[in-house]
Amino acid sequence: MNLDYTDDQKAFRDEVRAFLDEKLPERLTEKGRGTRALTKADHEEWHAILNEKGWLAGNWPEAFGGAGFDAVQRHILEMEMTRAGAPRIVPFGIAMLGPVLQKFGSKEQQDHYLPRILNGDDWWCQGYSEPGAGSDLASLRCEAVRDGDHYVVNGQKTWTTLGQHANMIFCLVRTSKEGKPQEGISFLLIDMETPGVEVRPIVLIDGGAEVNEVWFSDVRVPVENLVGDENKGWTYAKYLLTHERTNIAGVGFASAGLDSLKRIARAEQDGDRKLIDNPHFAARMARIEIDLMAMATTNLRVVSAAAAGQAPGAESSMLKVKGTIIRQEINALTRTAVGPYAMPFQSEAVEGANEAPIGPDYAAKATGAYLNNRKLSIYGGSNEVQRTIIAKSMLEL
Amino acid sequence: MNFDLSDEARMLQDGLRRYLAEAYTPAARKDAVEHGFSGDIWAGLAEMGVIGALFPEEQGGFGGTGFDIALVFEELGRAGAVDPLIDTGLLGGGLLAAAGRDDLLEAVIAGEMQLALAHTEPGGRYDLARVATTAQEDGDGWTLSGRKAVVVNAPRADRIIVSARTSGAAGDTDGLSLFLVDPERLTLAPYPLVGGGLASEITFDGVTLPPDALLGEAGQAYAALEAAQARATLALSAEALGLMEAIRALTTDYLKTRKQFGQPIGKFQVLQHRMADVLIEIEQARSAVINLAGHIDTDDRDLHLHATKNLIGNVAKLVVEESIQMHGGIGVTEEYDLGHLAKRLTMVDHRFGDALWHLERFIALRAA
Distance of alpha carbon B288 from its chain centroid, rounded? Predict the structure, then answer.
C-alpha cells in the first residue's frame, strides 16, 4: 500500500497548479469569495478557458473531444480547481448529459450536441424531479405522447438548477403507463425556445433564485430528440446518476470550506483570545477535520478502484452521505464562527449587494451558505434514499 | 409542585394565541419582516396587555415573572412574529425600569415608544463587558466615540440606549454607563436581518449628548445590563420553543400528507423515529425554558441561563435541520412557511451567546 500519488500523478498535479496560476482570472475567484453570484457569462468564460486547454471534459473520451482522464486525474483536477477557488464546472452538459449521449445517443446526436456542449453553444439543464416525484422519481408524470414525427409534452418539472440560463433541457418523460413505473419512462432532449415551455424561478431561503419550475404545455418535440429507445429512459437516467456521483463526496469543497473556517477562527476575537484558541470551538472543528481526513481517503479508495475499471456502485452512496454531513457541519460551524454577524441578511439577490458587506467580509456568506446547503443532503437522491441503497446492496438487508 | 398556568396567565395565552393566529396573516408577516414590525399589530399587542405582562406592578405592568415572559414569547414564536418586543420591552424597557425612568416606561407599556439597545461591538461577540466605546464628560454633557454592531430595531426606535465606558477598558465590568440617545442625532443605514426585522451598524464619531442623557449611575451599568440580557435570553429561548412547536406541527402535517412510493412518507419508520427524537428534544427545550423562567430572579439565574441557552441552541439546530430534511426541496424555499420559521430559529443561536459560549460558562460556574 502506498498513499502517495505516483510521479506521473504528481507531475499532473503540478501542471494543473501552474495552469490555474496562469489562467484562472482573479476576478472570478474574488467573486466566489464575496456575496455576488457568478453570472452566466462568468461560467461561460471559465468553461472557454478550460476548453481551450482541453480540460473542460476531463471525464469524456478523447474521441469525443474530452481529455480522457482516469478517475485519479479527474480527482486531482477537481481538487486543485476547488482549492484555487475556480468556479465549478457546470455539470449538466459535461458531467451528466455527455456520458449518456456517448453511451446511448445516436451518431447524429453525438455529432450535433457534444461539440456544442464543449463550445458553450448550448447550456443544458436537467428535467427530472416533479412536484409529486422527488425521492420516488419513477412516479414521474410529465408525459410525452407520440403524434406523427413529434412528441407532444405536457407536465411540470421542478428544482431545475440554473434553468434560467439554459436553452436546452434533458427530461425524463412518461411515454407509457403499462407495467412498472420505471418501464414507461423515456429520455427526451427539448429545446427550451419551443412554444409552450415556461421557466419560473423558485426563490430559496437564502434569497437566491438558482432553481426553477419548468412547465410544458403542448410542447412539440421532434422524435429524433429521443435518446436511445422509447421506455428505456430509466436505464439511461441511472447511468447518468452514477456519473453525477463521481465527485459526490465533495472533498475539495469540504477542504476549501475548512480552510476558510480556520481563517475566520484565527481572525475572530473571542474575549482575550482568538476564536481558534477557544477549546470548545477547537474541539468541534477538530472532530470535523478528523472526519474529513478519513473521508478523503475513503474517497481516494473509491476513486482508485474506479481508475482500475470498477464502476462505483453503492460506494458513491456512502460518499454522498458522509460527504454532505461533513460539508453541512462545516457550514454550521462557519455560521457559529461569525457570531452576531450571522444575523444581517446579505444575499446576492438583494439590492445593494455590491456595497461593502455588513461586518467582516468573511461573515457575509455564512448564514446563506448554511441555509442553502441544506440542499446537499436532499438533492441527487436524498441521504435517506442513499442509506436505503447501502442497506440493500452493501448490507443485503 | 404545580406546572399549571394561573387562570390569568391562561387567559393571556389563549387570547394572544388567537389574536396572533388572526392578525399575523401572510401579508402582515411580510410587512413585519420587511419593516421591522407592523404598527397595527404592535398597537394590538399593547392593548391586550402583552407589553405590560413583561413588567411587575411596581413598574406599571401586571406581570414580570419569568413565567409571564416565557408565556408571551412562546406564543410570539409559535406565530413566527418578528415584532421587536425583546428590544423594546426586555432590553430597552428593562434598562429604563432599572434606571427608574417610569415616565418613559409608561409610554413603552402603552405601545407608544420603540427602543433599541446599542451594546454589542464589532469583535465583541457575546461578551457583555467587551465595550470599547467611550463617553467623555465635559462642561456641556457627554461626547460618545466608538462603534456598535447589529443594533436590532435601531432603524425603528424612538430612543436608542447606548452603552459606553466612562472608565476602564474593554473587558472590565466596572466603568460601563448607559445613555439615552435620540436617533435623530445619528446616521443610521438600516439593513434587513435573516428571519425578518431591521438593524443598523452605528458609528459614534464624537456625538455630543446633553448631561441628562445619562441613564442610571455612571460606571455602574453592568449589573443592569446583565439582568436585562438574562430576561431577554429567557424571552428568546421561549420564542425558540414556540418556533420549534410551530415547525414540529408543520413537519408532522407534511409527513402525513406527502406521498412517495405509494404512501405518506410518515409511514416510513426511519422518519417516524427521527421525528420522535425531535419531539423528545423539544420537550427538553420546554423544560429548560421552565427551569430558566423559574430561576430568573434567584441566585441560580446564571447557571440556568447558561444551561438553557446551550440546550436551546443545540435543539434549535436539530429541529431546523431535521425539519428541512424531512420536507425535502420545499423546505428550502422562501415561499413555504417553514423557511421563515427555520431562519428565525437558526438566528436564536446568534444573540445573547451561542451554545458553545454558554457551554464554556456553564462549565466555569460548575467548577467554581
Answer: 16
Residue B99 and residue B134 in one domain: no
Q: Based on the fold, state whether residues B134 and B102 are members of the same structural domain.
A: no
**A52 — contact with chain B (CB < 8 Å)?**
no
Q: Indicate which of A128, A135, A202, A205 best probes the interface with B, i.e. most B CBs within 10 Å of its own CB.
A: A205
Count chain A–chain B contacts defined by CB atoms under 8 A: 131
Domain extent, residue B57, equals 7-113
Residues 339-368, chain A: which have Cβ within 8 Å of B? 339-346, 350, 358-360, 367
B1: three-class secondary structure by DSSP: coil
In a domain, B307, yes or no: yes
Closest Cβ opposite residue A344 in set B199, B349, B351: B199
Walking along chain A (397 residues) 10 residues at a time, the average pLDDT comes out as 90 97 92 74 96 94 94 90 91 94 97 97 96 93 97 97 96 96 97 98 90 97 98 92 70 92 97 96 98 93 81 84 97 98 81 68 92 94 94 93
Report how far apart, in Å, the C-alpha atoms of B232 and of each of A171, B54, B94, B119, B311 are. 52, 10, 9, 14, 16
Quick one: closest CA in B to A138, which residue?
A: B261
User: Is B1 part of a structural domain of the chain?
Assistant: no
When CB atoms are compared, the residue of A205, A358, A383 closest to B339 is: A205
B286 neighbors B280 (Cβ within 8 angstroms): no
Measured between alpha carbons, how far apart are the two ends of chain A, in Å? Answer: 32
List the CATH number of the domain containing B354.
1.20.140.10
Residue B1 pLDDT? 80
Q: Which residues of chain B have pLDDT under 70?
A: none
Q: Are A101 and A63 in contact (CB under 8 A)?
A: no
Q: Is B126–A375 a contact, with Cβ atoms under 8 angstroms apart?
A: no
Based on the domain organization, do B126 and B82 belong to the same domain? no
Identify each DSSP E strand in chain B by its residue range. 115-118, 134-138, 141-152, 159-165, 176-181, 189-192, 198-209, 214-215, 259-260, 263-264
Whether A386 and chain B come into contact, CB under 8 Å, resolves to no
Domain limit, last residue, from B189, B220, B251: B220
Interface mutation vs chain B, best among A203, A343, A386, most B CBs within 10 Å: A343
A244, A315, A329, A348: the active-site residue: A244
Residue of B nearest to A351 (CA): B191
pLDDT at B17: 97
**Catalytic: A80?**
no
Burial A202-217 (b: 16+ CB within 10 A, else e): bebbbbbbbbbbbbbe
Q: Is residue B47 part of a domain?
A: yes
Give the end of a domain, one of B95, B113, B131.
Answer: B113
| CA–CA separation, B266 and B271 (whole Å) | 6
User: Of B191, B270, B343, which has the smallest distance from its Cβ to A371's Cβ?
Assistant: B343
Cα–Cα distance measured from residue A226 to residue A149, given in angstroms and rounded to the nearest whole number: 11
Per-residue pLDDT, A346: 87
Nearest to B317 among A202, A281, A332 (CB): A332
Q: Among residues 205-244 of chain A, which lie with CB inside 8 Å of chain B?
A: 205, 207, 211
Cβ count within 10 A of residue B253: 11
pLDDT of residue A351: 43
Residue B253 C-alpha, separation from nearest chain A C-alpha, in angstroms: 16
Taken in order of first residue, the domains within chain A and their CATH numbers are: 7-89 (no CATH), 124-233 (2.40.110.10), 245-393 (1.20.140.10)
Do the domain assignments include residue B227?
yes
Tell me, yes or no, whether B254 and B309 share the same domain: yes
**Buried b or exposed e, range A20-53, using 16+ CB within 10 angstroms:** beeebeeebeebbeebbebeeebbebbbebbbee
Residues 137-176 of A with CB under 8 A from B: 139, 158-159
pTM of the model: 0.95
